[in-house]
Design goal:
The chain has 428 residues and is α+β, with helices and mostly antiparallel strands. The chain has helices at residues 18-35, 49-56, 61-66, 85-94, 139-155, 174-187, 194-202, 213-220, 231-246, 291-294, 309-319, 342-354, 368-377, 388-393, 414-425; strands at residues 39-40, 46-48, 69-71, 77-80, 104-113, 125-134, 161-167, 252-253, 265-273, 281-287, 302-308, 332-336, 359-361, 382-386, 395-400, 406-410. The protein has an eight-stranded mixed beta sheet. It has a five-stranded mixed beta sheet with strand order 13-12-14-15-16, sandwiched between helices. A hairpin with a 5-residue loop joins strand 3 and strand 4 (77-80). The longest helix has 18 residues, at 18-35. It is elongated and about 95 Å long. The relative contact order is 0.12. The structure holds adenosine-5'-triphosphate and magnesium ion.
Length: 428
C-alpha cells in the first residue's frame, strides 16, 4: 500500500468544529476594524517576487530566508505572499484608491506563507488580519489605529498583554543614528553573533532585533534611536505618546523595537502577551511614509498593522473566550429503513431544508439502531424514519432524541414537522 501523503511541515489543517470557530475569531476581529471605518480588500495569494524584495527589504528575514518563490511556465518569478501590506499598497496604487489629499482605511485578511521553523504559534501557512490607513496622516491616526487593537484586547479578554512602542526616526535623522550605531556595533563585534556581523554591514538597525541572549546584553546598552530623533520625529513621538495617554492606553517604551521589515518610519509598535511563550507578538505594525513612493506610487504616508489569527486563537483559548459553537449543527436526521423509502426520504430532506431546518439524510437503509448511531454522530436533535409500515400508510415517524417523544406525521406534513422541530431547537 502506498504511504499516505501528509500535509507539508508547518502547514495545518483546521478541521471541524475548530474551522467554524477560527472563522469566527477572524470575523469578530474584522468587526472591530469595521467599527473603525475600514473597508475590506481581497488580495491575491501570490505576487511578483520583486514586490516583496523591493518593499520589505533585501536584508530581512522574510526576503533572505522565508519567502516561497517560484517561477511559472513563462519564466516569471513569483512569491507566495509573506505579508499583506506590500500587496495592499500595490493594489491601492494600481486602482488609484489612495490619494495624497484624503484618508482611506483598508483591511485584508487571509493566509500568509513563510518558510520558518514551525513551533507553537509559528507556522509556514498562517493567517493575518491587517489594516492600513493611507493619506495625509497625523500622529493621531497612529493612535487611533492602535486604539482599535486595544479594543480587540479588551473584547477578547487577551491575557497579560503589553503594548511596546518606539519611534524609528525618518530619512532625515535615521542615517546619522545609523552611523553611530554601526560604530558601536563594530566596537563590540567580538560579543555579537555571526548574523549580527552580517547585518551590521547590510541592515544595522535589524541587529537590535537579535534574540540571542549574549547579543541582547550588548544591544541593550547600544545608543538609542529616540535620543537622536530630529525635531519632526521627536514631536511625532511625543504626540503619539500623549494621544495614548489621553485614551488611557498603557504602553511601554522599547528602544529595540525596529520590526522585521525595512519600510517602517517613525512609530513602530507591538502588542505582546506573556501567555504566548516565545512567540509573544500577536499584533504589530507601524508607520511607513516612504513605501508608496518606493513602489512607484505617489508620495502617500501610511500606517498599518497585522494581527496573527493563530496567536489570537491561542490567547482567546487561554482566556476562555473562544466563540461558542452553534448548537446543534444538525437539527434533523432522516433515515429510510428500506430501499423503497429512499425517494420519500430524499423528498423530506429537501423540504425540511426549504423550511430552513439543517437536515442530513442517510440513505443506505438498515436497522433502526444504525439510524440512532448516525443521528448521535451528527449531534442531531430529531430523527425521522420511514419503514415498511410508514411507507404503506404514507407517514413518517419523528423522534425527539432529547425527550424520546415520538410523533407520527403524514409524509407531506412538512410545515407541521418543521414547526415542531423549530419550537424545540429555538425556544422563543
Ligand atoms: P515574529 O517576530 O513573531 O516572527 P514578525 O515580526 O515576523 O513576527 P509580522 O510580519 O509583523 O511578524 O506579522 C504580524 C503578526 O503575524 C505577528 O505579530 C504574528 O502574530 C503573526 N505571525 C507572523 N509570522 C507568523 C508565523 N510564522 N506563524 C504564525 N503567526 C505569525
Ligand atoms: Mg518573523
Amino acid at each position: 500500500m502506498p504511504s499516505p501523503i501528509r500535509a507539508p511541515r508547518g502547514i495545518k489543517d483546521i478541521i471541524p468544529p475548530d474551522a467554524f470557530r477560527f472563522e469566527k475569531v477572524l470575523k469578530e476581529a474584522e468587526e472591530i476594524l469595521e467599527l473603525g471605518g475600514f473597508q475590506k480588500i481581497l488580495l491575491p495569494l501570490f505576487e511578483s517576487a520583486a514586490l516583496f524584495s523591493r518593499s520589505i527589504g533585501g536584508a530581512t528575514d522574510i526576503v533572505e530566508k522565508e519567502m516561497y518563490t517560484f517561477s511559472d511556465k513563462g519564466g516569471d518569478l513569483f512569491a507566495l505572499r509573506p505579508e499583506g501590506t506590500a500587496s495592499l499598497l500595490r493594489a491601492a496604487i494600481e486602482h488609484h484608491l489612495a490619494d495624497p489629499g484624503r484618508i482611506v482605511r483598508l483591511s485584508y485578511s487571509g493566509p500568509m506563507f513563510r518558510h520558518e521553523r514551525p513551533q507553537a504559534g509559528r507556522l509556514r501557512q498562517f493567517h493575518q488580519l491587517g489594516g492600513e490607513i493611507l493619506g495625509p496622516l497625523t500622529p493621531s491616526e497612529d493612535v487611533d489605529l492602535i486604539a482599535l487593537i486595544y479594543k480587540m484586547a479588551g473584547a477578547f479578554s487577551i491575557p497579560s498583554w503589553t503594548l511596546l512602542l518606539n519611534n524609528m526616526g525618518c530619512p532625515d535623522c535615521r542615517p546619522a543614528y545609523r552611523e553611530i550605531l554601526v560604530e558601536y556595533l563594530k566596537k563590540h563585534q567580538q560579543d555579537l553573533c555571526a548574523t549580527c556581523h552580517h547585518r551590521t554591514l547590510v541592515n544595522p538597525l535589524r541587529v537590535l532585533d537579535c534574540k540571542i541572549p549574549s547579543c541582547q546584553i550588548v544591544l541593550e546598552a547600544a545608543p538609542r534611536i529616540t535620543d537622536f530623533l530630529c525635531d519632526k520625529s521627536r514631536l511625532h513621538f511625543l504626540e503619539v505618546k500623549s494621544g495614548l495617554e489621553a485614551l488611557e492606553i498603557p504602553y511601554t517604551l522599547s528602544h529595540r523595537l525596529v520590526r522585521g521589515l525595512d519600510y517602517y518610519t517613525e512609530t513602530t509598535f507591538e502588542f505582546v502577551s506573556d501567555a504566548l511563550g516565545a512567540q509573544s507578538t500577536w499584533a504589530a505594525g507601524g508607520r511607513y511614509d516612504g513605501l508608496c513612493q518606493e513602489l512607484g506610487g505617489p508620495d502617500i504616508p501610511g500606517f498599518g498593522f497585522a494581527a496573527g489569527i493563530e496567536r489570537l486563537w491561542l490567547l482567546r483559548e487561554k482566556a476562555g473566550t473562544l466563540p461558542v459553537l452553534p448548537s446543534p449543527p444538525v437539527w434533523l436526521t432522516v433515515f429510510p429503513l428500506l430501499q423503497e423509502a429512499r425517494p420519500s426520504a430524499l423528498r423530506l430532506v429537501q423540504e425540511m431544508r426549504n423550511l430552513s431546518i439543517p437536515t442530513t439524510g442517510y440513505f443506505g437503509s438498515g436497522k433502526i439502531k444504525s439510524a440512532f448511531r448516525q443521528a448521535e454522530r451528527d449531534r442531531s436533535r430529531f430523527l425521522a424514519f420511514i419503514g415498511e409500515d410508514e411507507l404503506a400508510s404514507g407517514t413518517v415517524q419523528v423522534k425527539n432524541l432529547g425527550t424520546g417523544e415520538q410523533i407520527s406525521y403524514g409524509l407531506k406534513e412538512w410545515n407541521r414537522i418543521a414547526q415542531e422541530i423549530q419550537k424545540t431547537v429555538l425556544p422563543s
